[in-house]
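Let us begin with a simple case.
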Amino acid sequence: MAMIEIRQLSKFYGSQRGIENIELSIDAGEIFGFIGPIGSCFAGIMAATIY
């Protein structure tokens, strides 16, 4: 059972699209992390899930 589920998350910074159609499902007890280059909008994804 997913404890956190994100579907079709997109985020714009002004007219620039920073995140496009992210889908993520995290089950209870799972540990996850984001891997990628600096500036890949990881903070934007987490901030969008909180608000």
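The second case is a distinct protein. As before, the sequence precedes its structure tokens.
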Amino acid sequence: MDETLGPASPVTDRETVPQTQNRPCLVSLLTTGDPQTQLMCLVLTLQARQQGSDVFVLLCGPAGDLALNDAPEAATAPQKPNGMSPQAMLRKIQDFGGKVEVCALYMPNRGITQDALLPGILPASPSQVAARILAPDTRQITF
């Protein structure tokens, strides 16, 4: 397996990107409820993953709705130009090995439990999120 992925090397299978602790990490903090902005954040996150970075998405506030099994239509409606919805892109990130969590305040303030969330999405630990953000070789984007 080739362990060097350049910027122009698309990943076609989640197994192609090796899991190592020495890779750069992108932390994507997503708070907006706007589907186009959500999708742009997630497109960039997937691109970082495809280019060999570990990725972590933290969904807070209105963006937390992307994690719901019964998500609002705005989260599941296809967007131009490729017909991908924000929730579908989020799941694609998971399929490629990205980690997705909802902020610790989301579930208690929505009055929901973890069974309302898509498979593989967990409530975040603030101390672990802070450690990820402060780790060397980590970059952060916020939308």
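Strands lie at 25-30, 54-59, 99-102, 122-123, 138-142. Residues 24-142 form a domain with the Hypothetical Protein Ychn; Chain: A, fold (CATH 3.40.1260.10).
Keep these points in mind for the review questions at the end of the chapter.
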